[in-house]
Structures are given as C-alpha cells and as structure tokens.
Amino acid sequence: MSSYMEANARERLALFDSFEEFIGPAQRVVSPHLAQLNAPVSFDDGVVVGRATLGGLTVFAAAQEGGFMGGAVGEVHGAKLVGLLRRALIDRPAGVVLLIESGGVRLHEANAGLIALSEVMRAVLDVRAAGIPIVALIGGSNGAFGGMGIVARCANALVISEEGRLAMSGPEVIETANGVEEFDSRDRALVWRTAGGKHRYLLGDVQRIVEDSIPAFRQAALDAIAEVRGGTVELTLAGLEAEQDMLAQRIERFGSLRDPSEIWAALGIASPYSVPMLDIESFTAAAAPHRMGA
After folding, report:
1. What does the alpha-carbon distance between residue 227 and residue 215 come to, in Å, rounded to a whole number?
2. Which of 158, 254, 155 is nearest to 197 (CA)?
3. Residues of the chain above pLDDT 70, percent
4. Which of 30, 149, 168, 203 could form a disulfide with 41 if both were Cys (CB 3.0 to 4.6 A apart)?
C-alpha cells in the first residue's frame, strides 16, 4: 500500500527497512480501564513501539493506530510511548520517529490518560535534552489533536501531508464549546483549511510537507533526522524565545482575520483561493517566499 493515510499503523511501518516490536500483541498488554467498562480492547492498545532501521540508521519508532478509538491515548498506550522514549535514553538511537494519529485522550480513561500524556511530553523533552532527535509524522485520517498535538509540537521536526491535520482542539470540540458560529465542524473544507497540512506549513508549525505516500514520508523522515542532527537537537531558551516571537507576530498580523484563506493572502500568496488545488510541488514552490519561520 502506497497511501500513508489509508494504511494502518502496522502497514505504515513499511517505511522502515526493518522493525523489531517491543511488547507485541501476543503479550496481550491491554487497558484495564476498558475491560472494567466492558469496552472492546486491542492487544497492542492502539500503538506499536519498537526498534527499527532507516537508511542505515538505528532508530526507535512508535505508530498509533487510528482505527482503534481514533488513536486516543490511555494509560497503557501512554506507558508504551513513555517506555520507548526512556529506552531511547539508554540505547541512544540515531533518532526517534513518532507516527502520530490521535484525537487526544480517551474519555474512557480520563485522568489516567491525561497523566500518561504529561509523562509522554516530559519523556520527549528528556530525549531531546539528551541530544537525540525526535521527528513526528502526521498523515493519518484522525490527524494529531489534543495532547498528541502538543506532543507533536514538542518534537524537533514535524512532517505532514496535505491530508494530515494538526491542532490542539478538534473541530467538534470547538463547536461544542463555542457554538457553530465560531466553527462549523461540518464544513470539511474549512476544517482542512484551518488544521490541514498546507496551513500548518505556511504558519511554520511544521518543517516539511509531503505527498500522501509511505515512500515520501520515509524520505522526509530521513532528511529531517539528518537536518536535526546537523543543528540543535536539545530545547534551548533561544529556541523558546524564537517560538514565542513567532506566535506574537502571528497574533499581531492575523488576529482579526476569520478564515485561513485571508491569512494566506496576508502572507503574500498571490492566489490564496487556489492553494487547496495545488499539488505539493507547486504548493511548496509558491509557499517558499511567504511561509513564517522560513
């Protein structure tokens, strides 16, 4: 299967040359909370973690399964991610690749899931502090929302497809909290304009945008690891200050605008309404002089 979006978590592992799973389905480590609620369980709890090779490099990898509860994080799911990251501190691979597809925390597990996500974020920053690059790939149909959206932004580099989405709150959450006048979650074009890969790339939230294919994500992951290893891996005060400056500029320039297409026009895109129709090569060429943080 070539499409990254249509593949499941295990099929996406084909982007690696080899993969050795930690805590496989045969061990049946499942969520105790779901069992207590008589809810369906998955023998890998919706995430695959292990050691892989990529272009001659040894890396650690995790792939979330969007087909199980939308890739939502619970206690066991989060513990597997934390365990992988802590193991990386011991084995010191060339990098950690996170294949993210998640709507956030499982409501079934509430506080346990929230605690798990906070531990994942701390582990990500510990790995970065140790000088190990972390690259996040976002291209699944469930996107990267909620806590996993934050985890993604904690990584050194993000790779996204046009079909991928990245945000803190999902469209339905925004509509429920603030009304359809604030955000109409049924307007799919609006959803993708707001959270989709092209918008995130133009705003500087992601470093690479690729076509929806496993080979494209593979090459982008390799390139991102090489670029990060050649620069600053750990989180620094200067990096945080630069991020805050960019966010302040974003609010100042775009705070009064209502639609992403208005932001694209303000960035200097000559034909903002044509952006959704551009292929990735044409889009990146058009975006290069205008994207934030470039």
Report:
1. 18
2. 158
3. 99
4. 30
Six-digit token pair at 157? Answer: 């580099």
As a whole number, mean pLDDT of residues 220-249 equals 90
CB 112 within 8 A of CB 33: yes
Tokens 């932001």 correspond to: 263
Q: Which of 213, 160, 210 is nearest to 3 (CA)?
A: 213
Per-residue pLDDT tens for 62-75? 999 999 999 999 99
**Fold category of 9-166+206-234 in CATH:** 2-enoyl-CoA Hydratase; Chain A, domain 1 (3.90.226)
Q: Position of tokens 């709890």? A: 45
- Give residue 272's identity as a one-letter amino acid code: P
pTM higher than 0.90 for the full model? Answer: yes
Q: Where are the domains of the chain?
A: 9-166+206-234
> What single string gives the DSSP state of each residue in the chain?
---TTTS-HHHHGGGSSEEEEES-GGG----HHHHHTT----TTTTEEEEEEEETTEEEEEEEE-TTTGGG-B-HHHHHHHHHHHHHHHHH--SEEEEEE-B-SB-TTTHHHHHHHHHHHHHHHHHHHHTT--EEEEE-STT-B-HHHHHHHHHSSEEEEETT-BB-SS-HHHHHHHH-TTT--TT-HHHHHHHHBHHHHHHTTS-SEEE-SSHHHHHHHHHHHHHHHHTS--S--HHHHHHHHHHHHHHHHHHTT--SHHHHHHHHT-SSGGGGGGS-HHHHHHHHTTTSTT-
- The answer, yes or no, to whether residue 38 has pLDDT greater than 90, is no
